[in-house]
Every structure is written in C-alpha cells, then in structure tokens.
Amino acid sequence: MTANVRLVIVTGMSGSGRSTCLRALEDVGYYCVDNLPAGLLPQLNETIRDRLKHTPVAVGIDVRAGTLLGDLDHALDTLIASGVRPEVVFLDCADDILVRRFAETRRKHPIWRAGTVSESIRSERLAMSAIRERTSLVLDTSEMNVHQLKRQVQKLFDPEHSAEMRMVVSVLSFGYKHGLPRDADYVFDVRYVENPFFIAELAPLSGLDHDVADFVMRRGGDQALAKMTALLDHVLPLHAAEGRAMVSVAFGCTGGQHRSVALAEAMAQHLQASGIGRVTVTHRDVRTPD
Q1: What domains, with CATH codes, occur in the chain?
Q2: CA angle, corner 225, sides to 222 and 230, nearest 5?
Q3: Cβ atoms of residues 122 and 43 within 8 Å
C-alpha cells in the first residue's frame, strides 16, 4: 500500500451501520479487515503495501477493541509519518434510533454488562469521543436504511475517482413541515421566495418542472441563488483543501415541493459546472404523481 492508495478506517457507534459500510467498500474493490486492534495498523500497512499494489484498503475498528482503542492516536501518527494519509470515517446515529435498532434486532450491545441499552450507548459515546475528534468524515445514519447507506458510502469512496474529485457535495431539498435534515452543514431557508403553491396551475407540479423553476427564479429565486452561490464558491474550496470528504447543503421551503427543489437543482448545476467535486442531488419531500 503506497501513499497514493486510499486507507479508510471505519469506526463509530454500534448499530450505526459500520458493517454495512465495510461491505459496501468491499463491493467496490476495497480489501477489508474488520475488528483490527488499532495498534496493528502500521504493521498491516507494512505487510500488505507491496502485495496489494493499488488496491484500496478499509479497516474496521470499534468499541469491541476495549482498551486497545487507546492505541489509535499513535497508530495514525505513525502512518502519517510514513507517508500514508489515513481517512477516518465515523458512523453515528441518534441515541433513540440506536435503542430501537437494538430492540428490533434483539442483539445485545457489545459493551453491555448490566443496566439498559441507553446506558451502554452513553458509555460507548464516552469511549469513542477521542476517535471522533480525529475523523475525516462523520456520517449520520439516523435517517438511512442499509441500501441508502451503501449508496452513500460508495459515492464517497469509489476508488475509480481521483483524489482531486474525492469531495462530494450533497445537495438536498426539504420541507420544514416535515422536519429539518439531521446532518446538513449548510441550511438555506428559502421560504421568503414567492410560493408557486398559490398558483393553481403550478401547485400540482414540483420544482423539477420548468414552469415552476422559471416562476421561482423570476420571483426572487435568482437573487437568492446569487447570494448563496457566492458563499458556497468561497467556502467549498476551503473545505476541499482541508480534506473534507463530504459537505451537505440543504434548501428548505414550507413543503419541500417547489422553491427548495428548484433552487437545489439550480445550485447543483452550478456546482457541477464549477468542478469542485462530485455533486449529488436528493429531493427528500417531493410528492410523486399518483
């Protein structure tokens, strides 16, 4: 394994999807090792770097390592000193959803000794806090199923993409009445733009339709887009320079059907043309026609 081949360390909260993440990476060609003691990372590098050639590597490390988790800081520093740039991915999830997942699967929490699952989760968060501070990317899986998580991981870490195109900009539209997205880095409230919902012929449509998008842009959307574009054009290259794997940008209107969709689409087109990275677009609350 050489310095220009990816080494991804997958860690995080139990029940948040770490195993799914590793399987997703394996499916796109990563050599995966699970539950490795953190202190053995430099030895793993030495053992396989000449044998795997250009194969990217993913290593799963979690709370089951116990006191061995304390070796991770030194192992990462050793790898960096040898010219390897490890990427640490932390899978996280809201505590109430973790409790529900353990209840649904009827599995015991890995560090459960006595008490409740909630108490075990709190103990795990404390044990994992130092690792979280060294992460390159935190993925919140609270609102993802296994298939969505797999697609997201493969978008982020597909080895066919060059290092310059590693950062993914995730553009999302949503409706405030359905709740805020959990993991957005930037949230733009566009409810001040005139609403096509009150135009009879536009109400059944969405921001994906030309007539709606044209209305939104003519009624305040173009000025809003110019201001938001200026901000993102400034900050996104800075995020890329610091090695961020993903930045999430969300646009919210009342129902997530018209204004936020049209502006998210317009922003995605601008970002794709800018070449800042790979751009994905999701419209969380768009209603599909019956």
Answers
A1: 7-160 (3.40.50.300), 168-283 (no CATH)
A2: 130
A3: no
